[in-house]
Specification:
Keywords: Receptor. With 74 residues, the protein is an all-alpha fold. The chain contains 4 helices and no strands. Helix 1 (2-19) packs antiparallel against helix 2 (32-47).
């Protein structure tokens, strides 16, 4: 389970880095195919209590840095 959690965190970070670039024609028509499966799996891992507080904070910073990153500067 630990390796799955690490994979999800790395994949989510990679998806955020690649998903916020301007992209004319993403595969599948939107970035939904990139984010939704990762977030659903992260949700399941969160429900079973696999994430620690600092990992959850890191994930929230990736998803919404404006609200969860104190060092965010637009």
């Amino acid at each position: 389970m630990e390796s799955l959690k690490l994979f999800i965190m790395e994949a989510l970070e990679d998806a955020v880095c690649k998903g916020n670039r301007p992209n004319r024609d993403p595969i599948g028509g939107s970035n939904e195919n990139l984010f939704v499966p990762l977030i659903k799996l992260a949700d399941k891992l969160l429900l079973i209590g696999l994430f620690q507080d600092e990992e959850l904070q890191s994930m929230l910073r990736l998803i919404d840095p404006e609200n969860f990153d104190p060092d965010f500067n637009p």
